[in-house]
Design a protein that fits this description.
The chain is mainly beta and 175 residues long. It has a domain of 116 residues. Helix content is 9%, strand content 46%. The chain is built from two helices and eleven strands, in the order E-E-E-E-E-E-H-E-E-E-E-E-H. Strands 2-3-11-8-7-1-4 form a seven-stranded mixed β-sheet, with no helix packed on it. It has a four-stranded antiparallel β-sheet with strand order 5-6-10-9, covered by helices on one side. A hairpin with a 4-residue loop joins strand 5 and strand 6. The relative contact order is 0.23.
Length: 175
Amino acid sequence: MACSQTLAGIQKDCAASMGGIVEVLLANKADVASITVTSSKVTAITMETGKKFYRYQFRPGTSSMSSNWQVNQENGVAYVQTDLLMVFNRMETTKRVEVVAMAQGELVAIVKDANGLYWLLGESEPLVLSAGDGLTGTARTDRNGYSVTLQDNFSELPHEILTGTGGVDIDALAA
């Protein structure tokens, strides 16, 4: 049996593109009632009554999202592991409490990249902590703060979230 796919090609992109992420919105997986995907884009996210996503922001050039295929040809297994690295400067109690909650939670994330596009993580399985640290630094110019890596394992690359007319109202989802 052949494993044929419908290919359409990718044209050269002449638009400017910027790396990095701007902000992340997190919610408990149990607080998301439903997710609708149409034509490979998330077109609706419905929350349980009274539940919201919470915003996390960080300095430019510190945080990222990376997706990598995990493939085992012998076993016929292929999935995408996406790591969401969030870096928060300055160790302090309010940040420590949030980092501990992330470490213990089963989460869903909306990630806004530097190009203004939104991506959904935790669509089928919750995001879970895979790494993190708290560092004081040594020299006066070293970073003092926390870093957290949340991991998503999904059968596909993360879905883009359609915003604007006919899409998801991100601000309405956020606290």
